What we know:
The structure holds two protein chains of two kinds.
Chain A: E1 10-17, E2 35-39, E3 42-49, H1 58-72, E4 77-79, E5 84-86, H2 89-98, H3 100-110, E6 113-122, H4 133-160, E7 164-168, E8 176-184, H5 188-201, E9 205-213
Antiparallel strand pairs in A: 1-3, 1-4, 1-5, 2-3, 6-8, 6-9, 7-8
Helix pairs in contact in A: 4-5
Chain B: H1 2-8, H2 10-17, H3 26-39, E1 47-48, H4 52-74
Amino acid sequence: MTATPAMTATIYVYAITDPLEPPEGLRGLHDAPLARIDAGPVCAVYSAHDQLEPNPEPAVLWRHDQVVERLMEAGGVLPLRFGTTFGGTDEVHSILVRERARFERLLAQVRGCVELSVRVGIAPVSEPEASSGTAYLQSRLRASHEREDAAERVLRPLRELAKASSQRTPRGDGAVLNESYLVGREAVAPFIAEVKALQARNDDVAVSCTGPWGPYSFVDEVAG
Amino acid sequence: MIERANRGSELERTNRARGHRVSAPHDVGLIDLIDRLLDGGVVLAGDITLAAADVDLVYVGLRALISSVATAERKGIPLPR
Lengths: 224, 81
């Protein structure tokens, strides 16, 4: 699995991993072969390219993600942000050596787990004609609280099934909340069953769930 | 850019959907993918090819998609299982 790329190569790194073999036949961006940089208990999986401008087109993003997902079947994986490149493998190696303790802690945190993403769409609360500015603001505030309550009814039970959760800043008007969960592989099926049960019990919200993903939202150290 | 690439990625999206996507339309999967790969993950000290402005452009391309999904969800339109 060692490769000796030309001096001019662009090194595209997919993930920091446990020492593991990239699965047979798995290819990186532009079908490039995968290789590994070892630094004791932490490794980096990369592909070398003569020329590479990684554009964030869906097919390219899916490939990065596919590499991460397949690597996760073999061991602990910390996915890198899309588009991370280096001028040579020695640069990556020195980062692995320098940050080894941090990567080992993070790998221990996510090993055996996957990330699941849940979106909760909340039905708009009808706003009565307000007679004054104050009444209008009060009704807006009430609507916002009702939304929070509806979301909490769905999200709280899911948090209990997860090792960690992370809420993304809502886009736009906040009608859709997105939370990510770090879930042990063995808990994925119960988690999905709970998502379906919560949707069945709450007809004022629309719940969608995607995954399993690599632990993209859990690569910061959790306090305690 | 997004639409052209969409067609090219149909196979991978289909593969991914089989047995993996839990209960969401493809479009939600794509938004979740972009959120994770462009805004999550470990940031190393290498060159991140995408400047923050480029990332915003990706979202602009998806704005219509995102709002249509949001609208569908708001109206309680049942999502595929």
